[in-house]
Amino acid sequence: MRAVLKIGGSLLYDDDGQVRIDRLREYANSIKSLVNDGNLLVVVVGGGRPARVYISAARTLGADEAQCDWLGIKAARNNAELLGAALGDFAYPKVVDDYDELEVAVNLGKVVLLGGMVPGQSTNAVAAASAELIHADMLFNATNVDGVYDKNPEKPDAKKLESVTIFQLREILSDEGIKAGQYNLFDPVAIRIVERSQIPTVIFNGNNPENLKKVFNKEKIGTRITHGTKK
Ligand code: UTP
After folding, report:
1. Residues 207, 28, 164, CA angle at the centre, nearest 5°?
2. pTM value > 0.90
């Protein structure tokens, strides 16, 4: 399978802000075994805690949104580099920072790693654009919740959805922030790309690295985004 895997940056840091070294190793091992099974993988890594720390400091110092975004972009690239270190020879040797290079790199048989790309979006948009560009069969989005909920998951009556249409998803996420460091599950650019190319997408909990294999094996975890007609 040709697939894009997005790993939320929040999965890579513990509550004290330390890098979860063991988890990075576990992700790398799962990715290596997926490659050995014949899968072609592009992995996009999010900015996580370092992105938030830099963005909030820069904002306090008077930075504009674009400057804040660049700090998030670079933090995400650094996180991708960490995963690259754990992947060793399995990874294309540098974090890809433009889509032309992605098109070339993806055909070299290595895992291609990306972080952020351009201001005004999150790494979910990078993952969606990459999936579109490489004609991925699937886009897998590992995050720190079990999937998409019908309302704010902190509300006691919130229900996790097994599947959601792209139209419902847009509705559910309509209150999300659009400023640097404030995107949550999906940003508007990611939604538009997934919608226009009808990219089969699953959002799942990446806190358990075992879930990576499960989702590739088509086990029913997380929430699947479907592309039905608008109601
Ligand atoms: P993300 O919000 O994508 O990080 O990027 P993340 O780790 O996936 O988020 P969580 O922690 O899992 O929820 C961090 C910030 O970097 C900027 C945005 O400001 C974004 O909020 N960014 C990222 C861009 O401006 N452009 C990009 O292409 C990617």
Report:
1. 45
2. yes
CATH of the domain at 29: 3.40.1160.10
The model's pLDDT over 146-177, given as tens digits with 9 standing for 90+, comes to 999 988 778 889 899 999 999 988 888 887 66
What is the span of the domain harbouring residue 78?
2-226
The answer, yes or no, to whether any atom of ligand 1 lies below 6 A from the CB of 122, is yes
Task: Among 70, 173, 183, name the best residue to mutate to test ligand 1's pocket (greatest count of ligand atoms within 8 A of Cβ).
Answer: 183
How far apart CA 23 and CA 216 sit, in angstroms, is 18
- Counting the structural domains of the chain, the total is 1
